[in-house]
């Protein structure tokens, strides 16, 4: 059954036909929701949760933005979580964009009734004519210095079809210090390390000695000067390094890009479709970074949000036997670099497959009250803690600077999108961890002044695992709440 609403705008009649959402259960787990393709259809956004009605247009536990039809001519949201019992009620709302206009379908529900070889019956509201042109609803989201927007609006998007970084992205040019992870790289703007191909952004780390100018002798005794360095604090140690004694030049070159000078925002929903890297001692950086470091730069005083992060080893086991490799996705926030508080607000989702095996949609929802983490529409983490109180309990001095009236502080200022690939470092890979089937020991200790040197000395072992070291980004989208 289909319902048509006729709308009149300035003397023009506009018709949009919205079909009833079709639900299916192709496997024993999860569900599939779809609408058929139609001329001018641009996006089908689906939001659902189980046994709990929506009040307004909340995010939902199962969400996805579908931007093209499948091979069967359907715009389909698909999830394999969770297993649903008969009688489970799926409450849902959808947003459809067609011919550059937005349409809502809200206050809907569907009751799960599994029948072999049949589609369960659909439930419709008493008044099915709920398709309307999307109003400019109020939202707490602002962007680019406080500009207002409309609820649910797409406020940033890059699908990398234009083949250019400009004007949305700029490269970081710096050597990371121990204010963060002190990863064993220099971030540069090199076509070998970051490029756009076939409508996708690719970031890949490479060994510095692949450049014939960087002999082993130069890495041990030479100097690296980054012209156009983008150190946020103008720290000269982020812009140049002189190798001597236990200090070597960064053995890996990588790339890190951000939207700092084009787009930043406060509160919203981020979605990034990406294929994460695979290889020993690599990690992707899908972050939100503080625009102005309002509360300070050192020790994450202004915070950092992780949309998606893995330790990309194919097999990595911690000292206690816990699996911590690329099968474990992490997301959340950092409010300090000091262990063990550094990881207090990171949440995990373990997958049977390595997160670098295929593309996934990684999401983060940021509101004044909470931060939600999703993968492929499944919510795996929720942060509702008063960060200021938690930091004070652990004697973090930066907490005294945070806004007392904002429980989410320091995450109450504008942030920008940052994408990169790091390698090594002295924070993320725990000492005494073992990698690969042979259970080879991690080749450096995080507290060693020669950590980077020992990592480099082991390159003939770990570099052989870098068969898929690239981070590939299909799209980046940010929506208003």
UniProtKB/TrEMBL annotation:
PANTHER family: GLYCOSYL HYDROLASE-RELATED, GRAM-NEGATIVE BACTERIA-BINDING PROTEIN 1-RELATED. Keywords: Glycoprotein, Immunity, Innate immunity, Signal. Residues 1-15 form the signal peptide. GO terms for cellular component: extracellular region. Pfam families: CBM39. One of its GO terms (biological process) is innate immune response. Residues 16-117 form the CBM39 domain. Belongs to the insect beta-1,3-glucan binding protein family. It comes from Anopheles minimus. The keyword Glycoprotein applies. Residues 120-481 form the GH16 domain. The keyword Ribonucleoprotein does not apply. This is Uncharacterized protein. CDD domains: GH16_beta_GRP. GO terms for molecular function: carbohydrate binding; hydrolase activity, hydrolyzing O-glycosyl compounds.
């Amino acid at each position: 059954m289909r319902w048509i609403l006729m709308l009149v705008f300035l003397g023009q009649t506009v018709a949009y036909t919205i079909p009833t959402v079709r639900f299916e259960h192709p496997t024993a787990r999860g569900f599939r929701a779809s609408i058929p393709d139609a001329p001018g259809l641009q996006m089908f956004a689906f939001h659902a949760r189980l046994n709990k009605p929506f009040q307004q247009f909340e995010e939902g536990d199962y969400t996805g933005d579908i931007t093209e039809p499948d091979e069967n001519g359907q715009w389909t949201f698909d999830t394999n979580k969770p297993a649903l019992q008969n009688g489970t009620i799926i409450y849902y709302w959808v947003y459809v964009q067609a011919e550059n206009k937005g349409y809502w379908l809200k206050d809907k529900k569907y009751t799960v009734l599994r029948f072999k070889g049949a589609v369960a019956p659909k439930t419709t509201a008493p008044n099915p004519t709920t398709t309307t042109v999307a109003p400019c609803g109020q939202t707490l989201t602002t962007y680019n210095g406080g500009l207002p927007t409309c609820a649910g609006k797409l406020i940033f998007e890059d699908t990398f079809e234009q083949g250019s970084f400009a004007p949305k992205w700029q490269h970081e040019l710096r050597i990371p210090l121990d204010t963060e992870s002190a990863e064993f790289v220099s971030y540069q703007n090199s076509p070998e390390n970051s490029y756009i191909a076939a409508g996708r952004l690719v970031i890949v780390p490479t060994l510095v000695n692949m450049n014939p100018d960087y002999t082993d002798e130069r890495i041990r005794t030479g100097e690296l000067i980054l012209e156009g360095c983008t150190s946020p604090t103008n720290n000269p140690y982020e812009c140049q390094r002189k190798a001597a004694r236990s200090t070597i030049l960064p053995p890996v070159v990588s790339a890190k890009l951000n939207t700092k000078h084009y787009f930043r925002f406060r509160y919203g929903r981020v979605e990034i479709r990406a294929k994460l890297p695979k290889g020993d001692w690599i990690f992707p950086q899908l972050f939100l970074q503080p625009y102005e470091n309002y509360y300070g730069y050192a020790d994450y005083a202004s915070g950092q949000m992780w949309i998606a992060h893995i330790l990309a080893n194919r097999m990595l086991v911690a000292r206690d036997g816990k699996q911590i490799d690329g099968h474990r996705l992490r997301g959340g926030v950092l409010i300090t670099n000091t262990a063990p508080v550094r990881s207090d607000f990171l949440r995990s989702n373990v997958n049977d497959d390595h997160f670098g095996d295929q593309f996934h949609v990684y999401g983060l929802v940021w509101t004044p009250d909470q931060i939600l983490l999703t993968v492929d529409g499944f919510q795996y983490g929720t942060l509702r803690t008063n960060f200021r109180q938690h930091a004070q309990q652990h004697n973090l001095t930066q907490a005294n600077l945070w806004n007392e009236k904002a429980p989410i502080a320091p995450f109450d200022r504008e942030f920008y999108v940052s994408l990169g690939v790091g390698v090594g470092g002295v924070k993320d890979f725990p000492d005494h961890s073992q990698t690969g089937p042979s259970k080879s020991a991690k080749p450096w200790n995080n507290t060693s002044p020669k950590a980077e040197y020992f990592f480099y000395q082991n390159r003939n072992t770990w570099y052989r695992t870098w068969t898929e070291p690239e981070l590939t980004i299909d799209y980046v989208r940010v929506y208003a709440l």
